[in-house]
TrEMBL record:
Transmembrane segments: none
Protein name: ROK family protein
Family of this protein: Belongs to the ROK (NagC/XylR) family.
Signal peptide (from-to): none
InterPro entries associated with the record: ATPase_NBD, ROK, WH-like_DNA-bd_sf
Source organism, top-level taxon: Bacteria
SUPFAM superfamilies: Actin-like ATPase domain
Species of the source: Streptomyces sodiiphilus
Amino acid sequence: MTHTRSRLDRGRNALGPALELVHTGRAPTRAVLTTELGVTRATAGAVATELATLGLITVDPRPGTATGSQGRPSHRLAVAEDGPVALAAQVHTDGYRAALVGLGGRIVATAPACEAVDPDPAQVLGEVVAAGAGLLRETGRRCIGAGLAVPSAVAEPEGTALNPLHLPWPAGAPVREIFNRCLTEAGVPVEGHCGNDVNLSALAEHRHGAGQGAAHLLCVATGHRGVGGALVLDGRLHTGSSGLALEVGHLTVDPQGRPCHCGSRGCLDVETDPLALLEAAGRRPGPEGSLLDQAGALIGAEYPTDDAVRDATRQLIDRLGLGLAGLVNILNPDRIVLGGLHRALLLADAPRLRAVVAERSLWGRGGSVAILPCTLDHGSLVGAAELAWQPVLDDPLALAVTAG
Ligand SMILES: [Zn+2]
């Protein structure tokens, strides 16, 4: 025991980094963990054992080799299948959803999505938290924290939703305070965190999706309405001095274009979102499904065959490319990940989008930036959970202190 204890003391500072390596899939075995942490095998072993004791990861007791891999056998590491979870909630233009998300960005359970948003934030957040609390009761999982994604810039340190433009909410609603009050009332006594949905989706893509390994990751995405952007620098969200950075939706991409709710004209927000595509193709929004689903389905089904849909799609691709080129010139990212309808535009004609970016960016350098589709199905929910998981990733031992 004495030996284990002293090794663990040396490895204590490595617990957080070790958990993050397993959480993001970068340490599938104890041998890789040893190398990545730059510690001795004994220390890595003690660290892995401690994380397993905390119920966060599993260590395969029998060393094995992965199929086709070279080198000596090593103990496999994985996030614990039945470990604790974060309560994640997302509110968007057309509704809201609650889920439980474990380490590794794994969605463990989801409540049925609701398809209307009440003008009172307290009503909506009360319902979504109640849905999450119901999932916790059904699954019996331990909850380590809660995260909420909203389609608005979230001002820090106040935690207020400054511009819920496509929601019937008052500007400046104190969403974090309301979210925490709802958690307490629902009998889920954990800390609640809030963030902008595209920011959170970018964080999730960086840790678990198409952004893995990027040092300067730019994400641009539509929600069901509007357009947002986010920048992840060296693994951390760049949110600016008060949480409001990367409001890319209000870049002008057509000075003669549609009036925007911000007071300007022809913003990316109104020229490249799902409603813009439907309008450009001469289609009326139908009653079934979100605008995002309708616009995505239109490209998926009719882009190859319908001239009006093809022209509309190309028009949006060109405007998106113009916006991306401006961002590339300012931010010099090493990777761009596109979500929502922008993902569908990229998949429809990637060479066209890349050509517009290259043509409009300085020295044509934009042509060398990788532009990829996002890969996570519920990036904002997974990202909301990342906010909740962050204190545990920073200090896994805090879990032992708070355990009953
Ligand atoms: Zn605007």
